[in-house]
Give the backbone structure.
Amino acid sequence: MAGPIRVSDLTVGYNRHPAVHHLTGAFAPGSLTAVVGSNGSGKSTLLKALAGLLPPMGGGIDLGGLAPRELGYLPQQAEIDRSFPITVLDMVALGLWRVLGAFGSMRPAHWTLTREAIATVGLSGFEGRLIGSLSAGQFQRVLFARLILQDAPALILDEPFTSVDSRTTADLLGLVLDLNLQGRTVIAVIHDLDQVREHFPRTLLLAREAVAWGPTSEALAPPMLEAARSMAEAWDENAPLCPEGAS
Amino acid sequence: MTWLFDVFLGPFAEFSFMRHALAACLALALGCGPVGVLLVLRRMSLSGDALSHAVLPGAAAGFLLYGLSLPAMTIGGFLAGLGVVVLSGAVSRLTPLKEDASLAALYTISLALGVLLVSMKGSSVDLMHVLFGSILAVDDASLLLVAGVATVTVLALAVLYRPLVAESFDPGFLSAVRGGGSVVHLAFMALVALNLVGGFRSLGTLMSVGLLILPATAARFWASQVWSQSLVATLVALGSGYFGLLLSYYQEWPSGPAIVLTAGACYLVSLCLGPRQGLLAQRLPKKHLQH
């Protein structure tokens, strides 16, 4: 059994400017946490660091015994080149990477699993379609199908319900809750606070630093939200060096 | 019917240098088709062009040291291309400069160095051979080189296909599953450099990129998926090699430009008449489906 995913004094950023500053805390195994904050508050940067896509500028990340490839990462759609001519079936099949690696060959059982994942997200019949011909909602379902196939014990979801209609959101949210009920740790960037209050037991409220991290009812209390709103969005190019970190 | 044979097969039946050149072009097409398609789909067409210039100083250094020696110029060209790829990748990772900018900066230096090296020893005729190729230069050794390049390319693509495709459209996924994105990128660029040096004997360093890019861009108007575009690109490259050599023979044109211009004609025809969003197909009235 894996332990909690811990971040200790974690600082991540770009060009020496911290987008996430001295963050310390833990995501318990099997927990369901929403990461909330305004634009530029460091939500996606934190998730990229957890997924191993951005190296920390300071502090560290302990995956609690999970191998980095055991994390399932759902990126924002803008990070994928949808003009690339790949079919839904082939793209979802990439979710078997943990089983097949770069060079393993697809057996009939693997194709069956892939089709089942596509069916789970309600896209049966779309297997031969190119990803560029899908709507935003359909493509988000494809990303979820790949994520399901990854069968990862911990899921990191960057804005999983952005740009999709209410029906798709409801379907995908149901999937996320099911995956969590199966014992998987889920960390998701969510913008809809009502959705967070209704479905996510724990919340990390970010404003480059952790404003609150704990039970959702406490983290999203009005004083906390007010404190998060007061965050200055722009970087100060002449900011002094942070006294708490060497970097 | 005899005249058809005389026109289209006669030169190859009569002259062994034409047979050598044709075999070289056919082998080259097998590697250039799929590599070119991936290069275009990765939006790196101009990086391929830059790399073709970067190959020059290595080939020139080989020429300076050993004269018109195939192994020396080939190894030199490949190492120079690989060196520029590694350096530009390192510059883009260690500084804010994007990879296309660092590649453009390095290839300009590389090209100037190459021209300087050739001019130090060779005549302008030698320089022309290095830059634009010569079908007379395709001997048994050149043929073996091109066949070797095609073999390595096809085998490497078969092995690297999955990570290469993943890295092309979703590099974040490959990084997240620790799929070795940087290694895959480097291996692919090495394949591009390999195909460029494979083509430089018959096409020349500046022309060989044409057989990578033009068939691939033409294929996009006829086929929808990576495998089918690769197949069409390979066929276009094969046809361009064959008809380009015939043009070169009858018109007494240098082989490199003749082959690349034939590929260019295929591109223009595809652009206008290709069924997949070619100019004509877009303008023809089409009945839409019920649902």
User: Anything to note?
Assistant: Chain A has a mean pLDDT of 90. Residues 1-66+154-160+185-232 of chain A form a domain with the Rossmann fold fold (CATH 3.40.50.300).
